[in-house]
Amino acid sequence: MEMTVGEVAKRAGVKVSTLHFYEQKGLIYSWRNQGNQRRYHRSILRRIAVIKAAQIVGLSLEEIADSLSVLPKHHAPTREQWTQMASKWQAMLEHRIAQLNALQNNLGNCIGCGCLSLEDCALYNPQDIRAKDGADKTRLLQPEEWTQKI
Questions:
Q1: Do 102 and 147 reside in the same domain of the chain?
Q2: Which residue, 27, 42, 69, 106, has most beta carbons within 10 Å?
């Protein structure tokens, strides 16, 4: 069953402009009818629900697009395909949770530090790892470094 862009927007609870944006980013797909109007397969509603849920848990549109790129474009994926995608997301989310826990556990040191003591900051310079870069180097750790260094 095919749906118009307005029908999809209404049923999915998003704006038409959001659908256009998702399509531009390769998250969803449509085709054009003879009147050059966008049409979507009914299964697009599941894709949009997954996109919205993934955004709620903090996944970027790039991460979502990467995962959805292996799924069928114009029909609903199988349960196994959804499960494989969810497993990948689970690993990503567990990694982020570990990073946030590391930040949370060391944030208290920042309140006392105020980054006035950069050679001793648990987030900026744990275990004085910046020393190898020279004393004049200033660089905040990237999130992926938090769990590696702390």
A1: yes
A2: 27
